[in-house]
Specification:
Helix content: under 10%
Number of strands: 8
Number of helices: 0
Distance between the termini: 23 Å
Radius of gyration: 15 Å
Strand content: over 45%
Oligomer: single chain
Largest sheet: 4 strands, antiparallel
Shape: elongated
């Protein structure tokens, strides 16, 4: 994890679904609105008996204007040695302390070994 992260990372659930695995990880960040920059990193290895894959997740918050607009680059990189192509889908949901959502985004991505996948979310 990058410097400046003082919240909790919780692996809430990993489940097998018809076409792969769904992994749910919660990141808690206190007073996000007051932060100018913030980097969060997390590695995860799926618990798949057939095709285990390893992933590096990174989310970078960058406040870019005085009116509160924030740029959020999100990267997901596969780092295992399996030679098989897999699809990956990433969803980001930001909510406040009362669990009220203020940003939701989802992208479906294709990843080969060592291919980084990056998406930018602007809010």
């Amino acid at each position: 994890m990058a410097a400046g992260y003082n919240g909790k990372i919780i692996l809430k659930n990993e489940e097998a679904i018809s076409d792969g695995h769904r992994v749910l990880i919660d990141f808690e960040v206190d007073n996000l609105a007051a932060k100018e920059t913030f980097d969060l990193k997390q590695d995860h290895i799926t618990r798949c008996e057939v095709l285990p894959t390893s992933w590096k997740f990174r989310m970078m918050f960058r406040r870019v204007s005085a009116n509160g607009i924030v740029n959020i680059p999100v990267s997901l990189k596969r780092f295992d040695s399996m030679p098989y192509q897999v699809n990956a889908s990433i969803s980001v949901l930001l909510s406040d302390g009362r669990n009220q959502s203020f940003l939701a985004a989802q992208e479906t991505l294709l990843s080969l070994k060592w291919d980084p996948v990056m998406n930018y979310l602007d809010t």
